[in-house]
Specification:
Layout: E1 6-11, H1 17-26, E2 31-36, H2 48-65, E3 70-73, H3 76-89, E4 94-96, H4 101-107, E5 112-116, H5 124-133, E6 139-143, H6 145-155, H7 162-173, E7 178-181, H8 190-197, E8 202-204, H9 207-218, E9 229-233, H10 241-249, E10 256-257
Parallel strand pairs: 1-2, 1-3, 2-9, 3-4, 5-6, 5-7, 7-8, 9-10
This protein binds D-glutamic acid.
Length: about 260
């Protein structure tokens, strides 16, 4: 590869930025294009086929327009169903993120909590992961779109309401000693989740494993220099001043509008 690699990171919202951070810290020299599909957000409530078709259209267009070398589907809800289709249609590596059931089960003595979107907790893929890797430890699942919204709001400057968070997590709170953050939005509110569940609960996410995978596929070491960072959303990003401030801290210019071709 003669140029610095162009990496595309994709999510329905700002959640994929938690994965971007893990990759970027290892490989700052690469060029990153981040896209969030806020026009179709939340993915956790989309129909199966609608989601597959939409992600395929978006990614195919982006890959050809931005000369992409590697795609990261930084969304558990999408990855648990779209990866086979994308890999069949693209001739570049596609890395996905799925709930970290295996490492969590290795750590658990009591039970694992899987916190994800309503769609991810019902996916066959997720149930297969539990069957194959939970080592007979009980896995208690909690699907919540409100948690995803809370992460979106936090990145736009709103303080997380801990009382509300406590209510959302209540069904699993006192029964687990390890929790899987099975949605890329949740590392954004990790400190608040930790506060509510208590320090005795270990929180596990897939971000670092994804970053290692990207590094292995590109066969690269960290190098001097910082590549180009661009961020797009599918809905016109008006009134996103607070978000743009948070994005500036991650090295991005203000959000641009991505036009999905008909
Ligand atoms: N960040 C996404 C995930 O990892 C989903 C958020 C949504 O429901 O749109 O599953």
């Amino acid at each position: 590869m003669s140029h610095q690699a162009n990496v595309l990171i994709f999510d329905s919202g700002v959640g994929g930025l938690s994965v971007y951070k893990e990759i970027e810290v290892r490989l700052p020299q690469l060029n990153y294009t981040y896209i969030f599909d806020n026009e179709a957000y939340p993915y956790g409530e989309l129909e199966h086929d609608t989601l597959i078709q939409r992600v395929e259209r978006l990614i195919t267009q982006l890959v050809s327009e931005h000369n992409i070398d590697l795609v990261v589907i930084a969304c558990n809800t999408a990855s648990t169903i779209v990866l086979p289709t994308l890999r069949a249609h693209l001739n570049i590596p596609v890395v996905g993120v799925v709930p970290a059931i295996k490492p969590a089960s290795n750590l658990a003595n009591k039970a694992v909590g899987l916190i994800a979107t309503p769609a991810t907790v019902t996916r066959e893929y997720t149930h297969d992961l539990v069957r194959d890797f939970s080592q007979s430890k009980p896995v208690k699942m909690l699907g919540s779109t409100r948690l995803v919204d809370m992460a979106e709001e936090k990145l736009r400057g709103k303080v997380v309401d801990l009382k509300e968070l406590e209510q959302v997590l209540e069904p699993i709170a006192h029964h687990i000693d390890v929790a899987v953050l099975g949605c890329t939005h949740f590392p954004i509110i990790k400190s608040e989740i930790q506060q509510v569940l208590g320090e005795h609960v270990v929180l596990v996410d897939s971000g670092e494993a994804i970053a290692r995978r990207v590094q292995t596929l590109l066969e690269l070491e960290s190098a001097q220099g910082v590549g180009v960072r661009e961020i797009y959303s599918t809905a016109p990003p008006w009134e996103e001043r607070a978000l743009n401030c948070a994005l500036a801290e991650l090295g991005f210019n203000p959000v641009l509008h991505f036009h999905l071709a008909i």
